[in-house]
Design goal:
2 domains, eleven-stranded antiparallel beta sheet, Thiol Ester Dehydrase, Chain A, 4 helices
Length: 269
């Protein structure tokens, strides 16, 4: 399984990471994708543990996913194809495609585009790519093919007159922290989906939430002990779109914004 300038890996979905309908949880799919991303970054000499030695870290700015089919189930092969799309300004671009069991177009069930920056380890100040790599060489061995979106736009704040519902409160625990000692990005997605399910009053024993698109913009990092209030706002022009915002508990300032388009499938007999 080789493709020029790409890294492709297979992962077997275990029953321990599936939902009540035996499909892999969205945040676990993200975990596998980022594992493959890390392997590809090592190919480019940009692996997280290595750039930390240079007092730098990767900071994820935004992600956008599109899913055209249902997620894999337990014992399926989740195949992740990841590649760097290169750099522009201070940003790095990365794309993924996801396949179920077979690496061909007929079995591709989704795609993702993401934007990243390098930042200083201590203060998280942006660092230009040329500080750590030869950008001409880096872009030469990248693949300009767009997986989903050429540019992932920053999500705008909720309108002042929007209906906003506070659906859950969550305190960042030790198990939520990543290598950078802050809330791991896949956990934001987990909370966003939890808030959506609660807002929709979904009965997980009989109704399945199917994610069609998911777009998240990261604004302010969450540290150990911080509280997040996750709010949901229905879009007045699209019945299948929810706008989700995580707000810092005390200050109320936004930590992340997410847009979710979805459908519901009833499994009632």
């Amino acid at each position: 399984m080789k493709k020029d300038n790409h890294t492709i890996r297979e992962y077997t979905v275990s029953v321990q990471e599936t939902n009540p309908f035996n499909r892999i949880h969205f945040y676990r799919l993200m975990d596998y994708a980022q594992d493959c991303d890390g392997i590809d970054s090592a190919r480019l000499n940009m692996k997280s543990v290595n750039i930390r030695k240079e007092n730098m870290v990767w900071i994820l700015l935004s992600l956008a996913y599109r899913f055209d089919d249902r997620f894999p189930v337990a014992d399926d092969k989740l195949i992740v194809d990841t590649w760097s799309r290169g750099t522009r300004g201070i940003r790095f671009f990365r794309d993924n495609r996801y396949y179920r069991n077979v690496l061909d177009d007929a079995h591709c069930f989704g795609a993702m585009s993401s934007e990243w920056i390098l930042a200083s380890l201590d203060e998280h100040m942006p660092i230009r790519p040329s500080h750590i790599c030869d950008t001409e060489e880096y872009n030469r061995i990248a693949d300009p093919t767009v997986g989903y979106l050429k540019k992932v736009p920053n999500l705008k704040p909720l309108p002042d007159d929007a209906d906003v519902y506070k659906m859950l409160r969550y305190t960042a625990h030790f198990g939520d922290l990543d290598l950078n000692n802050h809330f791991h990005n896949t956990h934001y997605a987990r909370l966003a989906i939890d808030a959506a399910v609660r807002y929709l009053s979904v009965d997980p024993s009989s109704v399945e939430l199917v994610i069609r698109t998911f777009h998240i913009t990261f604004i302010k990092e969450v540290l150990y002990g911080d509280e997040l209030i996750v709010c949901v706002s229905p879009d007045p022009l699209n019945d299948n779109l929810l706008r989700i915002e995580g707000r810092m508990g005390k200050a109320g300032e936004p930590s992340f914004r997410a847009d979710l388009t979805y459908s519901l499938i009833s499994h009632k007999s």
